[in-house]
Write a structure and sequence with these properties.
Length: 188
């Protein structure tokens, strides 16, 4: 927002102006930054919303949300091992395709698992690859784990917890390492 954040303008005035411009939207949320996050019910509403440059006499800029308008799914398909970026997928609302690879004695080899990004808020149930109808599962990324306190949901750079060794309960990583170095080495 250019001058004054939208959060400082009367919500009644903003709501009235919005109803004039795009009719009723699904939901409106005021973010901590002062921006407004809106969910709309149709593509035409989204187009009208993106054109708005003034709301209740306040100059504004509207743009699609960077991550909320996409979603990721997982498919398994042998036919795509050699040509994972096939154009046929792109025409089905897919914006990005990433094939998982695995180590094969020093070099990477494509697997039959692909992570596909759709430019929609929910994934398609199936995707067509030639005459094949491949089911799409929701992609759930690995949870973020902290290597300092070993808990989930944050990284070690932002950790405020106590350092814990991942291998020995009740030990710090330093104690664990020290103990390891003091242990007599087994020789054959
Ligand atoms: Zn932590």
């Amino acid at each position: 927002m250019d001058d004054k954040p939208l959060s400082k303008i009367s919500p009644i005035a903003v709501d009235k102006a919005l109803k004039c411009a795009v009719e009723t939207v699904k939901s409106i949320k005021c973010l901590r930054s002062g921006d407004l996050l809106m969910e709309v019910g149709s593509a035409s509403q989204s187009r009208s919303l993106n054109k708005i440059n003034n709301l209740a006499a306040c100059p504004v800029t509207a743009s699609p949300h960077r991550t909320l308008n996409t979603c990721k799914g997982v498919i398994r398909c042998r036919a795509l091992i050699d040509c994972p970026k096939d154009k046929e997928l792109k025409s089905q609302g897919v914006t990005d395709i990433n094939i998982l690879t695995k180590d094969d004695s020093g070099s990477r080899r494509n697997t039959n698992t692909l992570i596909i990004t759709f430019h929609t808020a929910s994934i398609s149930k199936h995707i067509k690859i030639g005459y094949l109808r491949i089911p799409v599962e929701l992609y759930i990324p690995n949870p973020l784990r902290c290597f300092n306190c070993q808990k989930f949901g944050h990284g070690q750079k932002t950790c405020t917890g106590r350092e814990i060794c991942a291998k020995r309960t009740g030990w710090t990583q330093r104690q664990s390492l020290q103990q390891q170095n003091e242990m007599p080495q087994l020789r054959r």
